[in-house]
What we know:
Blueprint: H1 2-13, H2 16-37, H3 46-59, H4 63-80, H5 83-101
Helix pairs in contact: 3-4, 4-5
Amino acid sequence: MEEEEEEQVSATRKGFKNQIKNLWWTKGKEDLADSLNGPTYNFNSIESQNRVLGDYAFMLQDYELALSNYRLISTDYKIDKAWKRYAGVQEMMGLLVGSIKKGSRVLHGKYF
């Protein structure tokens, strides 16, 4: 009896009408969440690890390595439409490009 009920429920869920309805509703909710917050990146993701590597290189004053890491993840953030992360990376890139062109005097001034 229970097996028949399970088969009936699974057949109903697998119906064409329900698949279209589920596709329509679930896709809309996911798109809305992604557009408001952007995608989330775990600490294990390549983007997060490259960002941390860029930050460490910046702290250790290896500005070329930091800039190359920020450039690498900048395109990923732009493609994923993670605008807040993209803006943060662009700010760091602007700071680094300005400091590399001036012989890194800006970063060794009174602020650091």
